[in-house]
Amino acid sequence: MPRHLADYRRKRDFTQTQEPAGARRKADERRDNDALHFVIQKHDATRLHYDFRLELDGTLKSWAVPKGPSLDPADKRLAVHVEDHPLDYADFEGHIPEGQYGGGDVIVWDRGTWHPHGDPRKAYRDGKLKFDLDGEKLHGAWALVRTHLHGTGRQPKEQWLLIKERDDQVRPSSDYDVTQALPASVITGENVGAKPKAKGKAKADDGKTERSEPAQVQPPAGAVPATLPRTLEPQLATLVDGPPTHGEWDYEVKFDGYRILARIDGNTVRLFSRNGRDWTAKLPRQARTLQALGLREAWLDGEVVVMGERGVPDFQALQNAFETAHAEHIAYYLFDIPFCNGMDLRGVPLRERRALLQRILEAAPGDLDREAVLFSGTFNAAPEDLLSSACSMSLEGVIGKRADAPYRAGRSPAWIKLKCGQRQEFVIGGYSAPKGSRSGFGALLLGVYDDAGKLRYAGRVGTGFNETSLHALHHELTGLTVDTPPFANPPTGSDARDVQWVKPERVAEIAFAEWTREGIVRQAVFQGLRDDKPARNIVREQAKPPSAAARKETRAVNAAERKVRPGAERIADVDVTHPDRVIEKASGTTKADLARYYASVAEWMLPHLHNRPTSLVRAPDGIDGERFFQKHSAALKLQGITQLDPSLDPGHPSLLAINSAEALVGAVQMGTVEFHTWNALADRIEQPDRIVFDIDPDPALPFARVIEATQLMLAMLDELGLKAFLKTSGGHGMHVVVPLTRRESSGWDTLKTFAQAVVQHMAATFPDRFVAKMGPQNRVGKIFIDYLRNNRGASTVAAYSVRARTGLPVSVPIRHDELEGLQSSAQWTLRTLPDRLAKLKGDPWADYAGTRQSVTADMRKRVGAHD
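C-alpha cells predicted for DNA ligase (ATP) (867 residues):
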C-alpha cells in the first residue's frame, strides 16, 4: 500500500462503504510500458462535482472540480487538490452511505489514458502539469496549474486550475458544454445529480434564505457586547514606499477586485460595496454561503475577485462577470470580522480577529460552497520577497497589517499597501471624438480632486478598451454630457480638441507609467470602471513612509541619495538586487552571473531584439520555481525596457521591446531568464520579416536524426529558392529561420499558410521521418516541424537567449558547415558560449541582414499552399 494513501484510508470506514481499500498492484508492480490511466468520476455528494484523477507513482492523484471540465480554454476551472486515491478507485461506481466521507452516488463519467508532456513527477511538484487525454469523452491537450491560493480548513487544500489547451478539440462554452451534452456513465449509462437537492436558496430581492443552526462562537478577550450597527465604514490601507521595520506585521495578497462588507442579521444577509451600495442581488452565491455559516449576526470584511490567467485576480474579468451576470465565477475572500454574534470585535487585535474568522469558516457545514467564500491567508516571508513575487505574477501588490492593531474606520497607518506599479482611480471628466476606424470615443479625460476640493485635469487614456467596453461606456457617458468642463484647470490645445465634457460622476481605474511634474499621467491604460468608490473621494495617491524612522531604515532608498541600492550589484548601469540568489542549482549560477552574461553578449544579441516585440520568461525563484510568460508591460515597470505603441495589440497593455544592454539586464533584475521575439518589427507589425521552422523531435531520438531533418529542411528551402539560417534551440531541436523582405501582400495568414504547406509537404515526402500534426503522441519516433510559430503574436526564443533548463543552455546561431559537427542543441551554455564568441572570426549570420527574398506565388503553388 503506497504511503500516500494514509489520508484516504483514515477518512473511510471500509466496514460501511464499498469503496476499495486499495489492495491492487503497487507502484513497483507497474511495467514501464504500461499506459498511465485517468478517470473522471461524477460525484453527487453534498454538492455535485467531478473528481479528476491521474495515475502516477502507484496512486491516483486527485482533484475535485466543482463545475467539471470545459472544452473552452477561456474557462479556468477550479480544481481542489484532495488526497491520493488507490488505483482500484478508477473502477468504482456506486453509493457511498450518508454519514461517510463523501456520502452520495458516484459514476465513472470518463476514463482512458493520459500522456504527460515531459517529466510528470517534476511537473506535478512544480505545479504545472501538461498532458494529453485519450478518453471516451475527453481528448487532446490539457493543463493543471497550481495557484498560490488555498481553501479553508485545518489543512487548507491547494487550489489548482484545470484548463483546456488550444487544439482541434476546442469548443466554445457558449456553444457546447460537454458535461451537459454527455452526462452519463461510460460504464453503465446511468446518471447522477439530474435532480437538484432540496436546499434553501438565497433570494436576490430580499437577501433571505433558510437558516443553518447558529454557529457556536467563543468571543476573544477584548470583545465587548454591542448591538449590530446598521452600517460600517471599512478600514483602509495607506500607500507607502517601503515596508515598516518595527512591530509585527502580517501580509496578504492585494486583491484586484471590489471591497465588499457583509452584514448578517438573523435570516437576512446583505452585501455592501465600500461606499454603501447594496450589491446583494449581484452576489447571490455569496449571500447563500454566508447564511450557511450559521452566524446569528455579524459584519464581515473582504474582497470579491475573479481569477484570470495563472489563477491570479483579474479586475476586467470581474467586471465582465457582473456585466454578463456570470456571478458563478466570483469568489469572496474574507479577511476580517469586526462584529460577531452580539460582540464588537473592533478593539480585539487583528491576529485574534482573523483566527476567529478562520475557525468559523473551518467549522462551517460540509455543504458550504467553498468556491464562493474563502479565507484570505497570510504569507510567512519577508515583505520585499513577497512584493517581488507578487509583481512577477502580475498581481497589484501586497497589503500589510499590524498584527496587534484594532479595526478602525477610514485610512489607517496600521494597514499599508505596497504596489507593484502605478495604478489608481480617476474621475472621468470628458471624452474625445474617435478617429479612423475606431468607434465610441477616442480617449477619456481624467481628473483627481485636490486639497481644496477642485477637480484637476490629469491626462487622457485611450488604450485598454475593447469594442464592447467602448460602446457600453460611450452610451453611459452620453447621458452625462454638459457644456462646460468640470476641471478647474481644463486642458488646452490638442488635448481639448473635439472633446465632449461630462458630469464628473463616473470613476475609472487606470494603470500608468508615471506622473509628470505637471501632474499628468503618462502611458495610461484603462482597467475598468469602479462602482464602489464615490467620485468626490478620488485624490492623487502619493506613497509615504510609515514613519520617519522606518523611512531611514527601509531598503527603498532614493537613487539620488545612493548610487547603488544596499545589497545590490551594478551591472550595465542597473542595480541588480539579490545578486547571490541561485537561479540554477546544478551549476550554482546566480542572478548576477546571468546579468553579467547578458551584458557581455548584448552586442551580439541586440540586433535580433531591436524594435521587435519581445516576450519574457521570468523565473524569480530560479528555474526550479514558478515561471511566468510576460508578453505585455502590465503595471510592472522594467528598467530600460521600451513600451511599444498600445495600438499594436489593441485591448491590452503595451508590448515590450529590448533595445539596449540596460534593458536586457533590467529584465534580469526582475527575474527574466529567456527572451522570445515576434516574426515582425514594431514599425510594420502586420508584415512579417521572417518565417521560423522549429525542428521538434521526439526527445527519445538521437541528435543525428535532428541533424538529418535539418539538412532535409534546408534542401527543401533551397529547392524553393529561399535562403535559410540556422540556430540551436537550446533544447532538443533546431530553428531554421528564413528572412523575408516585408511586403504588403505577405501578411501573417499568407506566410503561415505557406509554412504549414511546406511542413505538410515534408511529412508527405518523408512519412517515416516527419509528422505534420503536433502533440507528443503524434511524433513518437518522428519529428514535428512546428510552423505555428508563424502566427501573429507567436514568438520564438531569441538568438543568444539562455533557456530556463538544467545547465542553462543557450540558443546559438551557427554556420551551415557547423551543423554536422554538433553534438546537441544544448551544446553551448551560459558559461561556455563566451569562449565560442571570443574565438569566432565573424558573425555566423553575417549575411542575414542583407538577404532580400520573398515568398512568391510560384513557391506557394509548388507546395500546395492555398491562401
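The chain has five domains: 3-181, 224-233+254-380, 422-537, 569-677, 690-862.
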